[in-house]
Amino acid sequence: MRGTVGTEPIDNRLFVLILQHPAEKREVLATAAAACAALRRAALVVGLSWPNLTHALGRPADPRQWAALYLGSARPASFGLEREIIVLDRTGVPTADQDEMLRGLEGVVLLDGSWSEAKTLWWRNPWLLRLRRLVLNPRHRSRFGRVRREPRREALSTIEAAALLLKHLDGGPEIETALLDQLDRLIGEARTARPAQARKVARSNL
User: Whose CA is closest to 131, among 90, 84, 72?
Assistant: First the structure.
């Protein structure tokens, strides 16, 4: 049975490995930890580089059965594909057999950080190039737009990216719903906290 956020972890099949840039830990609305807490098969590791997938994951893993999510210079909307997940080849264009390339995945790697921090993680870990490369082409903009601006239309928060991936690759629309509900709670808490923080700063300046 699949659990729900706030009770038991969601019993996802596809493992989610999140590589978090150290600077992202200071963000009030960092969502990586929330995503991992909600999923039974997930791990969050903080750092800048790892020798290979096995070291980052902490156990043996076959890179041929893993994918990495990275936007890079790709503009998914320009590909003209009615898909929310697109597999790219090494030249940055969609592969011929999208469905076949998405079959048999054991796990997916997400990069957690700002746009520049994600680029740093990508270039400091060349083993990521051995994984299948995915980009997202979401139908809706990030909910983060309510509190934090995203650099591009297709850019999503880490928890939203995990939700979209698991919706399509884990056959679980209920997983997406549970993770997005968790994000909405985080956004609500952040909105509540900001006025309180502003009042605290104002009092300290009296």
Answer: 90
